[in-house]
Design a protein that fits this description.
alpha/beta; eight-stranded mixed beta sheet; 21% strand
């Protein structure tokens, strides 16, 4: 695991259907927002907890909660679309109880952007920060992208349908050379956002884009 800031704590996030999720939590400064981060398929909470608990995020008082989905290392259960969305709900509830005065910015990378969009569509948030988002896993499956985990081949994760219900601002970044999710899928998604939104396309791949626009995103959402 990454060498995490001493303020980051290991926590257990309990879901409504009885699963126990591994999480990493750093409390915000009083009244400051919290990033709730949802990782990609081949990732884990540690990188997000490290990223959002240091640097400019820490300097401006942000908190962070990053969870491992059910069935991923440290968490109980077996993954499915319904299950990981329930995990997202549990993460949101955890933050509301732990920091009731704090606003929430949902963040996701790759697979996690689908969870972030779903949370932004159904919960009060100040915004969504999406890195390498997709319109739907169904559309990616039709393109025969082999990276998709088996459980998601049968779960469509229709972000393109959910994102129209997001009323908070959305900022997304996508790599022009992403070999996993084509930039066209991100464009399709952002075109359906009815609120203030922006897609930033940069030279980069699926992973190299991570954190590229953190300064801009933090300044924008931190001032809301």
């Amino acid at each position: 695991m990454e060498q995490l800031a001493p303020e980051v704590q290991e926590v257990t996030v309990e879901t409504a259907d009885g699963e126990r999720l591994y999480g990493l939590w750093k409390a915000p400064q009083t009244g400051r927002p919290v990033v709730v981060s949802f990782h990609g398929n081949a990732s884990a909470p540690g990188w997000a907890a490290d990223r959002f608990s240091t640097g400019l995020w820490a300097a401006h008082g942000w908190g962070v909660l990053a969870i491992a989905y059910r069935g991923y290392p440290g968490s109980t259960g077996s993954p499915s679309e319904e299950g990981i969305l329930a995990d997202g709900d549990a993460a949101m509830t955890f933050v509301w109880k732990a920091a009731p005065e704090s606003a929430i910015l949902v963040h996701g990378h790759s697979l996690g952007t689908g969870v972030a969009v779903a949370m932004a569509a159904t919960h009060p948030v100040i915004g969504a920060y999406l890195e390498a988002p997709y319109a739907s896993l169904l559309s990616l499956a039709k393109r025969q992208f082999r990276y998709l985990p088996g459980f998601l081949m049968r779960d469509p994760m229709r972000s393109d349908l959910r994102v129209a219900r997001v009323t908070a601002p959305v900022i997304a970044i996508h790599g022009k050379q992403d070999p996993v999710i084509p930039a066209s899928s991100a464009r399709e998604l952002i075109a359906k956002v009815t609120s203030n939104s922006r897609l930033i396309e940069v030279d980069g791949d699926h992973v190299s884009i991570l954190g590229m626009v953190d300064a801009e995103v933090e300044e924008f959402f931190g001032s809301l």
